[in-house]
Design goal:
This protein is of the alpha+beta class and about 425 residues long. The chain contains 16 helices and 13 strands. Among the domains are: about 70 residues, 5' to 3' exonuclease, C-terminal subdomain (DNA polymerase, domain 1); about 150 residues, DNA polymerase, Y-family, little finger domain (Dna Ligase, domain 1, 2-Layer Sandwich). Helices cover about 40% and strands about 20% of the residues. A five-stranded mixed beta sheet has the order 5-6-1-7-8. Strands 9, 10, 11, 12 and 13 form a five-stranded antiparallel beta sheet that branches.
Length: about 425
């Protein structure tokens, strides 16, 4: 059996764990630079707010309705997610982390097993030990487990496929809500008279394979109770990118290089954490398309001599690309770095003629020490020397760094920074 466990209103729930005064209060969480509502709890939705609302347009309405607003605190959310998955691994030997707030748990098909009772115990344990409410969908495969999880949110948090009127539930489910059926496939199916999950279940397999690709074919199999979508094994991701909009227009290339250095370090830290190296480095630079004045945007990509996760080499490449696409007298709003061609670099044999590769491998212990310090004392403790990059966030205003994110409603990192542990009186 497959359990799909989902944290309910996860970002908002993480914020409320350490703010008991917000119990049953409306909460909204904003994107980077406090631009758009990215997450909200049920109480906030009931007031008419929705994901995607522009913050400055609804700011006064949020205040009037007493909505607690938070900037995205991904450090807190990631740590709470890790704690939840530690609990999942106590219940199941096989766990697949699907996203920051969703996981699949795989159990054997035991005879006479009470999976509902097991799901309830899991739900109560997670809530008791982390404070995060979760819902659990139980089914023979991942597609049906996802569907059951959506039903579980309206049925006390637990839903077992084997205890439902299955065809009735499938007939009540729009085909576009089925996991794995995107908008294009849903539109195609609707043109052919298939509007519900039940209709998709009865879709001929040969036609499904022809018109819906192998993914759609597997979805049809799973709706028929066949386990066709296996656990996703570890595989290197295709892209790591980091970008943020500046608080105010930036004119000077030195300021942009400082921001790019910050973003490059974050991107390299991500690939190193997964044991990956990159082949290509891309830099994007753009003005604000919604502002007045002349517009400009450009990007450039460079291929590294070999797979690399050596920060100085990647940083030097990124800086060179930026200098080549920079044009003076523009009001720049965003710079982005993207690392592509990612793979596991298992070739530790030095190359007689490749000095860059040799240097990166010879200095790998230095990069490991670099990573260890930042992991222990916090991201950004050690950085490459680059203009104003050494300035800490608390003196950002005095330093006048325009690339720092606007995070006016950021909560403390309760679980990862000892200096931000809440005080009890």
């Amino acid at each position: 059996m497959v359990f799909h466990v989902d944290g309910n209103s996860f970002y908002a729930a993480c914020e409320r764990v350490f703010r008991p005064d917000l119990y049953k209060s409306p909460i909204a969480v904003l994107t980077n630079n406090d631009g758009i509502i990215i997450a909200l709890n049920a109480e906030c939705k009931a007031l008419g707010f929705k994901r995607g609302d522009v913050f400055y347009q609804v700011k006064h309405k949020l205040e009037k309705c007493g909505v607690a607003v938070f900037s995205s605190n991904y450090t807190l959310y990631a740590d709470m997610s890790a704690r939840m998955n530690l609990i999942y691994n106590r219940f199941a030997a096989d766990v697949e982390i699907y996203s920051i707030d969703e996981s699949f748990l795989f159990f054997p098909m035991w005879n006479n097993a009470d999976y509902t009772a097991l799901g309830l115990e899991l739900k109560n344990t997670v809530t008791r030990e982390t404070g995060i409410p979760v819902s659990v969908g139980i089914a023979p495969n991942k597609t049906l487990a996802k569907m059951c999880n959506k039903l579980a949110k309206k049925q006390g948090g637990i839903c077992d496929w084997n205890k439902l009127n299955q065809n009735e539930e499938l007939s009540n489910c729009p085909v576009g809500d089925v996991w794995g059926i995107g908008q294009a496939k849903a539109d195609f199916l609707k043109r052919h008279g298939i509007t519900t999950a039940l209709g998709l279940k009865n879709y001929p397999p040969d036609k499904a394979k022809k018109h819906l690709t192998i993914t759609g074919f597997k979805t049809v199999q799973e709706l028929n109770g066949i386990r066709a979508i296996d656990k996703i094994e570890e595989a290197p991701r295709q892209l790591v990118s980091v970008s943020r909009s500046f608080q105010k227009p930036v004119y000077e290339i030195d300021d942009i290089i400082t921001a790019l250095a910050e973003y490059t370090q974050e991107a390299v830290q991500r690939i190193r954490a997964e044991g990956l190296s990159c082949r290509y480095v891309s830099v994007y630079l753009m003005t604000n398309p919604h502002a007045e004045g002349e517009q400009y945007s450009n990007q450039l990509t460079a291929e590294l001599p070999c797979l690399s996760a050596f920060l100085p080499e990647i940083q030097a490449t990124a800086n060179d690309l930026l200098r080549r696409i920079f044009r003076p007298n523009y009001k720049y709003r965003k710079v982005m770095i993207a690392l592509t061609g990612l793979d596991f670099d298992k070739n530790y044999q030095l190359d007689l003629f490749n000095t860059n590769y040799n240097k990166g491998k010879e200095l790998e212990p230095l990069m490991q020490a670099f990573d260890a310090i930042n992991n222990r004392y916090g991201r950004g403790t050690v950085k490459l020397a680059c203009g104003l990059i050494g300035k800490r966030s608390q003196d950002t205003e005095a330093a006048g760094l325009p690339f720092e994110m606007r995070r006016n409603f950021l909560s403390p990192r309760y679980t990862t920074n000892i200096n931000e542990i809440p005080a009890a009186y």
